[in-house]
Amino acid sequence: GAVGGQVRLEELPLREDLRGRTPYGAPQLDVPVRLNTNENPYPPPPELVTDVTEAVAEAARVLHRYPDRDATALRTDLAAYLSEDTGVPLTAANLWAANGSNEILQQILQAFGGPGRSALGFEPSYSMHPIIAAGTRTEWVPAPRRSDFSLDTERATDVLAEHRPDVIFVTSPNNPTGQSVPLDDLRVLVQAAPGMVVVDEAYAEFSSRPSAVRLLDEFGHKLIVSRTMSKAFAFAGGRLGYLAAAPAVIDALQLVRLPYHLSVLTQAAARAALRHAEQTLAAVHKLSAERDRVREALVGMGFSVVPSDANFILFGRFEDAHEAWQRYLDRGVLIRDVGIPGHLRVTVGTPEENEVFLAVSKDIASAGL
Ligand code: PMP
């Protein structure tokens, strides 16, 4: 066995509040059709690969030096992209970047959550929100959605008044259910929130609704919009998440970020990938159309499908969702059991991948769910 393999986790002087918890764990299995982690199924185009390679080669020449701690050039490029995407004039001072939006969210809770503070989310939602809360010792307050998984704004404002959380998470479009929150509802939530509001827009580019970035000018003292290059930008392996907020919020995050957290290589690669935004995002429109096609097909087979504004679909109802998940896997199709009774989540893939998924779905539907 491994050196030290006889030591058991239970013997370690781990923090009491972390004992018995399970880590984030989407299975990474080598099967023909992988539709379980909401990635963009299209690999980067050759021009982008060449551009990233050249940019990284250039960056390699200065690897003996620490990177720009403030990632100013990258933040400038992100500001240009996000301004274009949302129509809101942003500058580098409004942007912050980290290794995936997970790190962004962690920095937010390090600065605005922590011991003695609480964070609230409307469940089911992104499973990392409570895990990051646990890691930062922020008390997690789960709040409900309607039975159709949509957000009940009126009820939400009551919950906020009752619990007065220091931070709230609003995921729009919501993972794993797919619905996004209209701007008017977001405004109501932000007004009602006693503390910071994090709108997690990891899937924003797939949605037809306007971004919460539009509310930043009005609510700079409490609003943070989190984004990522992992989904629409087909850059999940590059690890680049970012946020838009008032400059003062970014000053606050500087207090908790590790120095030089974004490597020279990451900054160079992300900037190169951003130069190809237009081309990459063209695939996003194809994926949104595919999503609607897959949805119709599932409905035609008798599945109930939650309306989705993202690149994945939550569907059911299965007698035993985990059993159904295994049946997909046995046919070489990896989708996601997100733990919602009777439901599974599938990421929209290439048309070919979706065909395989739909063929298996048809067999499962006719065999009885
Ligand atoms: N937010 C949501 C809602 C997500 O679904 C994900 C990825 N599954 C993330 C944030 C984090 O993604 P990343 O760290 O790759 O940016």
TrEMBL record:
Pathway: Amino-acid biosynthesis; L-histidine biosynthesis; L-histidine from 5-phospho-alpha-D-ribose 1-diphosphate: step 7/9. Keywords: Amino-acid biosynthesis, Aminotransferase, Histidine biosynthesis, Pyridoxal phosphate, Transferase. The keyword Iron does not apply. Residues 15-36 are annotated as: Disordered. GO terms for biological process: L-histidine biosynthetic process. This is Histidinol-phosphate aminotransferase. It catalyses: L-histidinol phosphate + 2-oxoglutarate = 3-(imidazol-4-yl)-2-oxopropyl phosphate + L-glutamate. Homodimer.
